[in-house]
Specification:
The protein is 46% helix and 8% strand. The protein is mostly helical and 98 residues long.
């Protein structure tokens, strides 16, 4: 990505009224992504986080420290949780194709 491209990308997605973040926390959020979530979207728009991780496991995956505390506080305390259980569609599909 070009220099400054990441910032432009995140500014674009910060403006959407609804943003769906799939595979949340498979990779550690970058500083730019944390800024988008904490400053630009918080209290202004809606964000859906799809993840395989329980919220109790988020802290080390976000990066620990103050940033992780801020993200967890802002996301977790303003959330409607939808638990889908432990059923794994990928595993089910893989077994069906054996």
């Amino acid at each position: 990505m070009r220099r400054g491209g990441s910032g432009k990308f995140l500014r674009k997605y910060a403006a959407f009224r609804l943003l769906v973040v799939d595979a949340w926390l498979l990779d550690r959020p970058t500083e730019s992504m944390r800024g988008m979530l904490l400053e630009r979207r918080y209290g202004q728009t809606s964000t859906v986080f799809c993840t395989q991780y329980s919220h109790k496991d988020w802290h080390p995956r976000i990066g620990s420290g103050v940033h992780a505390d801020e993200i967890k506080d802002r996301i977790i305390h303003n959330t409607i949780w939808v638990e889908t259980g432990t059923y794994n569609m990928r595993e089910h599909t893989a077994l069906a194709n054996v």
